[in-house]
Design brief:
By secondary structure, this protein is of the alpha/beta class. The protein has a domain at 3-174 and 221-245 and 287-296: Vaccinia Virus protein VP39 (Rossmann fold, 3-Layer(aba) Sandwich). The chain contains twelve helices and seven strands. A seven-stranded mixed sheet has the order 3-2-1-4-5-7-6, with helices on both faces. α4 packs across α5 (76-84). The structure holds S-adenosylmethionine. Residues 9, 13, 71-73, 76-77, 93-96, 121-123, 138-140, 143-144, 218 line the site of S-adenosylmethionine.
C-alpha cells in the first residue's frame, strides 16, 4: 500500500481499537450465537475460539518455540493464549503504534512475560530464516495487500514443519458482495429479519470503494485472493474449514448489536438465518466468506 494508505489504516485502527462499540456493531462474531454457529461448523461442537487455538498451537509447537502473530491490534487474544502456554514465546506486530504502546504497557503490568508486541507492517515482513514454529493470522491476513510477500515470508520465517494458522474473512474483496449475496440478503431482510434489527440498513448495498479507501484502505483489500495466493506460495495447505457467514455478514454487519443474546425471539431470528445460510451453501448459491486456514512449511 502507498504510505498515505498505511497512515489512514493506522489512524482508523487507533480509533477503532479505542472505541469498544466499533467492535460491537461491526464484528458479527461478538454475538455468542454467531460464535456458536461458527464453532459448530468448524468442530461439530461448542469450542471457544481461543481454546481451540491454544490446543492447535500446543500440538504444533514445542516449549521454547516462538510464535509470530500479525496484525495483532491490542493482542487481547494473544494475552489469553500466551497465559495458557507460558513456555512458548509470542511476538505480535501491528502498524497502529499507539495501540502497540498501550498494549505493551498493559501486557507488562499483567506480568505476561512471554508476549511482546511491536510496531511492524505485515506487508513488508522480513523474517529471519526458520525463526518461528507458528505464524498466526487472526482477522489479520485480509488486511494485507502484499499477500505474495507475506506468504513468502511465512515460508522463510517458519521452520520446516512449522504452521500457519489463520482465521480470516476470505470473501469478496472490499466487501463487494456478489449478486447472489445481495439477492438473498435482501430476501431474508424482507422475510426473516424484523424491522427492529434493520436500524443500519434495510437492503444490501456494496460499500463504495472510495469510502472504504477513505476510512481503512487495508480493509478486505485482497481477501478473495487469500486462499489462492497461499496455495500458490509453496506452503502446503492442509486444511480449509469454511465457516460460512456469506449471508450473515452482509445482513448483520452494523446491526448485530440489536440482537440481545438473552432474548430468544432474537435468537430465533438468528437461527433462521443460520438455517437459510446453510441451505444456500449446500445449494452452491453462496460460498464460505470466513474460513480457518492451516498451511505447513514442507522440507
Ligand atoms: C480486525 S483488526 C484485528 C486485530 C486482532 N488480530 C484481533 O483479532 O482482535 C485488524 C488489525 O490489523 C492491523 N493492520 C492493518 N494493516 C496492517 C499491516 N499492514 N501490518 C500490520 N498490522 C496491520 C490494524 O492496525 C488492526 O489492528
Amino acid at each position: 500500500m502507498e504510505p498515505d494508505a498505511i497512515e489512514r489504516a493506522k489512524v482508523f485502527w487507533e480509533g477503532a481499537h479505542a472505541a469498544a462499540e466499533h467492535e460491537l456493531h461491526d464484528n458479527i462474531f461478538r454475538h455468542p450465537m454467531v460464535q456458536a454457529y461458527a464453532s459448530l461448523q468448524a468442530y461439530g461442537s461448542l469450542v471457544g475460539q481461543l481454546d481451540a487455538l491454544t490446543v492447535a498451537i500446543r500440538e504444533r509447537t514445542r516449549p521454547g518455540d516462538e510464535i509470530l502473530t500479525v496484525c495483532c491490534g491490542p493482542a487481547l487474544k494473544e494475552r489469553v493464549i500466551a497465559r495458557a502456554l507460558p513456555d512458548r514465546r509470542f511476538v505480535g506486530i501491528d502498524i497502529a503504534d499507539g495501540v502497540v504502546t498501550k498494549a505493551s504497557a498493559e501486557i507488562a503490568a499483567a506480568g505476561i512475560a512471554n508476549l511482546t508486541v511491536e510496531v511492524g507492517d505485515a506487508n513488508h515482513l522480513q523474517l529471519r530464516q526458520d525463526r518461528f514454529a507458528c505464524v498466526l493470522g487472526l482477522g489479520a491476513v485480509h488486511h494485507l495487500q502484499n499477500l505474495e510477500n507475506f506468504w513468502q515470508q511465512c515460508r522463510r520465517g517458519l521452520r520446516v514443519g512449522g504452521s500457519l494458522i489463520a482465521e480470516e474473512y476470505v470473501g469478496p474483496s472490499r466487501f463487494q458482495w456478489t449478486e447472489a449475496q445481495i439477492h438473498e440478503g435482501d430476501r431474508v431482510l424482507r422475510e426473516i429479519v424484523p424491522a427492529e434489527h434493520q436500524g443500519h440498513h434495510t437492503s444490501i448495498r456494496r460499500i463504495p470503494i472510495e469510502s472504504m479507501l477513505r476510512a481503512d484502505p487495508s480493509e478486505a483489500v485482497r481477501s478473495a485472493e487469500i486462499l489462492a495466493t497461499c496455495r500458490a506460495s509453496g506452503l502446503t495447505v492442509t486444511a480449509v474449514v469454511g465457516v460460512g457467514c456469506s449471508l450473515l455478514q452482509p445482513v448483520l454487519m452494523h446491526q448485530i448489536a440489536s440482537f440481545d443474546p438473552r432474548n430468544w425471539d432474537h435468537n430465533l431470528v438468528l437461527s433462521r438465518l443460520f438455517a437459510e445460510e446453510q441451505r444456500l451453501l449446500r445449494a452452491g448459491v453462496l460460498d464460505h466468506d470466513f474460513a480457518i486456514l492451516v498451511a505447513v512449511k514442507g522440507s
